[in-house]
Design goal:
Pfam families: SmpB (PF01668). The protein has about 160 residues and is of the alpha+beta class. The protein has four helices and seven strands.
Amino acid sequence: MAKPGPVSGRIAAQNRRARFDYFIDETLEAGIMLVGTEVKSLRSGKGSIAESYAGEQNGALYLVNAYIPEYQLAGQYYQHETKRPRKLLVHKREMNRLMGAIKREGVTVVPLSIYFNERGIAKVELGVGRGKKKGDKRAAEKDRDWQRDKARVIRSKGKDFD
């Protein structure tokens, strides 16, 4: 049975640009270590993972450069650092495989979304991808435009025959 993805949970932050900038080869789910005010801030729908990536620090996998704003209703003594590295919780075998791929093949691990699963636990959907070049981006945009035009033509032809 397949693991439930972010569709089954409530999305807190999404990296919409990742699929445009990278060829995503595979995705995996990881836990994330957060403090209380970070969870509250994410539940309110704030946060950005647009410029973030996952990398190795001190032998563990960390989410770097993710922005989770301070939770305004908490006091000034209970606030968190907004752009601190956050530890990602993955199995040791998965982490070793990811680190090997990053070092050997030059791939990047980018977060696609942060969401809360059915149990209310924050999860990160990570994508293992290779960067697209400018020509690849243009080809993807051209293909997307063609699909949209094709659907428009089919819809208009169907109205003529009724």
